[in-house]
Write a structure and sequence with these properties.
Length: about 500
């Protein structure tokens, strides 16, 4: 049976009963079918959420009870971790060890926001009038549409749902039509926990019409989107109808800067981890490697040799270090970007193609590194979202910073150096929201995630992620009610 929507506390087929196949990217075999929703299905979900928020019990449910449900959900996720990890790998393609990390992190995310729900979320101010107590409280925004990508299907669902539900909102999740499998399984667990009808809902289908209907709806109070910058722009425009709150986590072309005094063995491993983890299908991927000239030749020789030893294959196979890309369409897009890099004059250090063995049935692309690049090349400026690394050379610290910031994006960046002062100088000059020193990619539920410039705005995770799902209300209480004598005739 095809995967179904979850609306008003029940699993239901889309109104038109349309379906779409989804695939295992390692060999493009059909994994199953999912319902294909239309704008009418979105409207049904929005109406149920609207009723649940305006008239239902969730917003009046004590924080501890909301927290208890999220804690139970985290426990259920952990109890099904092996099943969920394998489902994630089969539908997304990433190596099993990465999927296992994602599922554990998702459980931790629900548990983190369950704990945060019961913590203080207001302030009291000392104001000039001693007869007035001035305070603020945080209240849920309302109905929240949440649109997530295919690269972290389960974890991104947690990043959106956990803070939204913890704060008392009613949430409508739209997963990617390419990776609906684990999102559907998550909602089976949500149903098992027993959230009130309309509080947490799932609508399957394509960005147009499902995502666009959520963004345009005047009954939706907030839209949270993770995905491409072009789509983010469309969502911003659609949201102007009722000026709904918008959070956008978009693309990146992040610099990974290696100075000559760095531990080069460590820097080499993280240069590879930064771009080849998740097949490079990661918004914060270190897709630009900035090398100090004096160490570039040896570093690149070591990098080329190491790339040739990466184990590329089915994510469920033991020892796999890099899996397939999500689809044939995306594989072609990445290969076109590689062709464009060569046409513009960049040199392939390694990779650049596909495999002519059994992996040809899947969407595999070889780990690819370009050298002799120029700042205006597409492979340097455009987000490729695949295992393609562009190398840039610098001579001075000032030049490294200039090259690093020469991008319309500003999501992430890293600095490798043994000089602590230099590390702090450079990292503070990077125009990016998530940065690392002598490491790459560690992400924590406790710390904010988001970017500068065209990488979006707003923050997820940490207390910032919770606050993004709340409104701030000011309350002024008069301790001793008394007339003020403003109107003489009273």
């Amino acid at each position: 049976m095809a995967l179904q929507n979850y609306i008003a506390g029940k699993f239901v087929a889309p109104r038109a009963e349309a379906t779409r196949e989804f695939f295992d990217p390692s060999d493009n075999s059909v994994l199953g079918e999912a319902g294909e929703s239309d704008a009418g299905d979105v409207e049904a979900a929005v109406c149920a959420a609207r009723t649940a928020f305006d008239d239902g019990p969730w917003t009046r449910t004590p924080a501890k009870e909301r927290a208890d449900r999220l804690f139970k959900l985290a426990d259920l996720i952990e109890s099904r971790a092996d099943e969920l990890s394998r489902m994630e790998t089969r539908n997304n393609g990433k190596p099993l060890r990465e999927a296992q990390f994602d599922i554990a992190d998702a459980a931790g995310c629900f548990r983190y926001y369950a704990g945060l729900a019961t913590k203080p979320h207001g302030q009291t101010f000392e104001v000039p009038d001693p007869n007035i107590v001035c305070q603020t409280v945080r209240e849920p925004i309302g109905v929240c549409g949440q649109i997530i990508p295919w690269n972290y299907p389960f974890l991104m669902a947690a990043w959106k749902l956990a803070p939204g539900l913890a704060a008392g909102n009613c949430c409508i999740l739209k997963p990617s039509e390419l990776t609906p499998l684990t999102a559907s399984r998550l909602f089976e667990l949500i149903d098992e926990v027993g959230f009130p009808p309309g509080v947490a809902q799932l609508v399957l289908g394509a960005g147009d019409p499902v995502g666009s209907a959520l963004a345009f709806s005047n009954a939706v109070d907030k839209i949270a989107f993770t995905g491409g910058t072009a789509t983010g722009r469309k969502i911003m425009m659609a949201a102007t109808g009722n000026l709904k709150r918008v959070s956008l986590e978009l693309g990146g072309k992040s610099p990974n800067i290696v100075f000559a005094d760095a531990d080069l063995d460590v820097a080499l491993e993280f240069a590879m981890f930064g771009i080849f983890a998740g097949q490079g299908e990661v918004c914060s991927a270190g897709s630009r490697l900035l090398l100090e000239r004096s160490v570039a030749d040896k570093f690149l020789a070591d990098l080329s040799s190491a790339c040739g030893r990466i184990v590329v294959g089915n994510g469920l196979a033991e020892g796999t270090e890099m899996g397939p890309l999500i689809s044939r369409v995306h594989q072609r897009k990445v290969l076109d970007a590689i062709d464009a890099g060569q046409a513009e004059g960049a040199t392939l250090l390694c990779g650049g193609g596909v495999y002519d063995d059994a992996r040809a049935a899947g969407n595999f692309v070889q780990p690819t590194v370009f050298i002799n690049t120029e700042p205006n090349m597409k492979i340097v400026r455009d987000e490729i979202f695949g295992p393609v690394l562009a190398v840039q050379i610098f001579d001075t610290e000032e030049e490294a910073v200039r090259i690093a910031n020469d991008t319309p994006y500003g999501l992430a960046g890293a600095v490798f150096t043994s000089d602590g002062s230099r590390a702090q100088r450079v990292i503070r000059r990077l125009r990016a929201g998530i940065t690392w020193i002598n490491t790459y990619h560690p992400t924590f539920n406790e710390a904010p995630w988001g970017g500068y410039k065209q990488s979006g705005f707003g923050r997820e995770l940490g207390t910032y992620g919770y606050e993004a799902y709340t409104e701030v209300k000011q309350i002024n209480t008069c301790l001793t009610p008394q007339r003020i004598g403003w109107f003489a005739h009273l």
